[in-house]
Write a structure and sequence with these properties.
The protein is an alpha/beta fold.
Length: 684
């Protein structure tokens, strides 16, 4: 039971203070003048003031409450390395024994797991949530069993007691890690991009290593090995092999004795883009569509156009002396022999053989295609004549043969069944299955024996647009020279610009326009996988996880030629996807999660948090320190011990109050003292 003195004044405190001041002045004046009975009258005044203050005695019945100690046990990924699980388990047993022998103490054990995503070790957040559930007045301290690698120390922590770190790990631990300092999201195809890499050893390295091997793999291909110096930033020039997403994996083999190899690799995903599209337009006989081709290509700022056209054919005889001609000789040899490899695309627009380009030049164009180049032929009546470029060395790469028939009649181009699945023409037709809302064309060149894919048809379903692969290159044949009618808006026009853009990108081997394609869109740990096929149905998708385990996922058809699947990856790293003979790779999360970026145990991360709380930072490699009681504000750690602050918290069970000076008793005392003072004065 605890007693407390309280006051319940009968008058407001300001009035009481005024009365007290008046009484003191009066008593002091009476004492100075030596008036008889001044002492008794002073006591009467004090009794009156005490009665007006209403003193009370409050009695409380209290029940003591135990102290609460929070112990956070770190079980994140980095705590599973080396001997840390054994150290943590042994330290927990020792703490349980010491806390069990400490009087009036309750222990709250908090298990800390990996944060959501790649958040790492959120120890501060775990402590804050635990403190929110406990009375602040009972918390005697916080003890963290961890390797010290905490990733949320920026959070503010309000703690009324000391906090301690009991650090796992061993003094001889060491680690090697791979760091990618800069990795751009985009890079230009054919131009080197510089990545800065660093191989770094930390901890008690057993040997004086000078360099280490580094493996580089692009899109899951066989890696190439290099030797890099340790502890030095290394600039690595890299040229992307193709457009679209390039998944680059850097890795260094695990060294003997290092604590983990989870940070020995890094995934970098760079999108390859083209700087400029270099196009050679070879025009033959002038026609209304010729200017359309030129205007279309010149309007795109990303296109560098070289236009080769015949303004003065050899058969033209007008008597003008050669020395008076103002035409400049066109560098045909330089273009078609020496620098043909510099072009990304060659377009033949109604071109026919006139003897200006020798057969060796056209043979070189065919070689250019076979080595990976791209040729687009917009055929006019010349393609069906005896002077057709088909009757040249180009015939071995062209996808169809002309029959010498030119059909002069109106027709509406339409997409074939195969074209509905091909990415070049997929979705171009706004009304699939019916006549498209496109304008008519008025001429078509009949071709036969098409090779490759027929994506569009014209008169009586004859091939109109044929695409084919030749060796490493690609060829497209448009069997009409009336595509320009769409750009003029004839009968409503049509998607000429989009069709030609897709054709150019398909011939440039842009990944999104590949016919047989497997790709994935990543959101967190979830993959949305797509498979495009031109023929047949897609089989089961085989997914190989970073640890080598395989899973088969069924694909569902979502559109003609397009299949889709969803997959949730439970690991972070490089996944390999395979369906049939098509495969790809995709990275989920970082190759080295945050937990393993720096896995060595350290006390420097938590030192700024623990220092203001007067706690301790101690390694448990040699054993768990002893527990002591310390007063608030005193240092709570020393050699071989850590302190907890007793809180002396209690719970009030009952409260009772009693008057120390009842009003009637105070009135009697005042009256008695006043009477005694009067009698003493009368006697004198």
């Amino acid at each position: 039971m605890t007693q407390t003195l309280l006051f319940d004044p009968l008058l407001p405190w300001p009035i009481l203070w005024v009365l007290a001041g008046f009484a003191l002045i009066t008593i002091a004046l009476a004492a100075w003048r030596q008036l008889p009975g001044w002492g008794l009258r002073g006591l009467a005044a004090l009794c009156l003031l005490a009665t007006l203050m209403g003193p009370l005695a409050q009695n409380e019945t209290r029940a003591p409450l135990s102290d609460i100690v929070l112990v956070v046990v770190d079980e994140t990924a980095s705590q599973k390395l080396s001997t840390r699980p054994v150290q943590t388990a042994q330290a927990r047993v020792d703490l349980e024994q010491q806390l069990a022998t400490r009087a009036n103490t309750e222990t709250r054990w908090i298990t800390l797991k990996d944060d959501v995503g790649d958040g790492g070790t959120a120890l501060m957040q775990a402590v804050s949530h635990a403190l929110a559930d406990e009375p602040q007045g009972r918390v005697a301290g916080v003890i963290a069993l961890s390797d010290g690698q905490v990733h949320d120390t920026d959070q503010q922590l309000t703690l009324p007691a000391p906090m301690h770190l009991l650090m796992t790990g061993q003094a001889q631990d060491w680690d090697r890690r791979l760091i990618v300092r800069n990795a751009p999201a985009f890079a230009i195809i054919g131009e080197p991009v510089t990545l800065t890499l660093r191989l770094e050893d930390s901890g008690a390295t057993p040997e004086d290593f000078r360099q280490a091997p580094l493996d580089i793999s692009i899109d899951g291909a066989a890696p190439q090995r290099f030797n890099l110096p340790l502890g030095v930033d290394f600039d690595l020039p890299l040229t992307l092999p193709h457009g679209g997403r390039n998944v680059i994996r850097f890795s260094t083999p695990e060294a003997a004795g290092e604590i983990t190899d989870r940070n020995n690799s890094a995934l970098v995903q760079i999108n390859g883009v083209r700087d400029r599209l270099r196009v050679l337009l070879v025009s033959g006989e002038p026609h209304p569509g010729g200017r359309t081709w030129r205007n279309l290509l010149k309007s795109d700022s990303s296109v560098d156009l070289v236009h080769f056209t015949i303004l003065r054919p050899p058969e033209k005889q007008d008597g003008v002396p050669v020395d008076e001609l103002s035409l400049i000789a066109f560098p045909t040899r330089e273009l078609f022999l020496e620098k043909i490899e510099d072009f990304d695309l060659i377009i033949f627009d109604r071109y026919k053989r006139r003897g200006i380009l020798p057969a060796i030049y056209l043979d070189n164009v065919a070689n250019y295609v076979e080595k990976g180049g791209a040729v687009l032929v917009a055929a006019g009546p010349d393609f069906a004549s005896a002077s057709s470029i088909y009757r040249s060395p180009l015939s071995r790469v062209l996808p169809a043969m002309p029959t010498a028939r030119v059909m002069e009649q109106a027709y509406r181009p339409k997409i074939t069944d195969l074209g509905e699945r091909h990415p070049v023409t997929l979705g171009l037709d706004p009304t699939p299955g019916d006549l498209p809302s496109w304008g008519s064309w008025l001429r078509q060149i009949e071709v036969t024996a098409p090779e490759g894919h027929v994506l569009m048809s014209g008169v009586n379903d004859r091939p109109l647009l044929v695409l084919n692969r030749v060796a490493e290159g690609r060829v497209a044949l448009l069997a009409s020279d009336h595509a320009w009618l769409w750009s003029r808006g004839y009968q409503g026009g049509g998607p000429q610009l989009e069709l030609l853009r897709r054709l150019a990108h398909w011939m440039m081997k842009e990944p999104e326009l590949e016919e047989e394609m497997l790709w994935a869109e990543v959101s967190g740990q979830n993959m949305q996988i797509f498979r495009r096929r031109m023929e047949g149905a897609a089989g089961k998708l085989t997914i190989t996880a970073p640890d080598g385990s395989e899973a088969e996922v069924p694909l569902q058809e979502r559109a003609p030629g397009l299949w889709e699947a969803q997959y949730l990856g439970d690991q972070q790293g490089l996944y390999r996807l395979r369906e049939g003979d098509v495969s790809t790779v995709v990275g989920l999360g970082p190759a080295a999660p945050r937990e393993f970026q720096d896995p060595l145990a350290t006390d420097t991360v938590l030192a700024p948090v623990i220092a203001p709380l007067r706690g301790g930072l101690m390694s448990i490699e040699g054993g768990v320190p002893r527990l002591r009681d310390v007063k608030p504000g005193r240092p709570a750690a020393g050699r071989g011990w850590i302190g907890l602050t007793p809180r002396a918290a209690y719970e009030t069970l009952s409260v009772s109050q009693s008057q120390l000076l009842p009003a009637w008793l105070g009135l009697l005392l005042v009256a008695g003292l006043a009477l005694a003072a009067w009698l003493r004065e009368a006697r004198r």
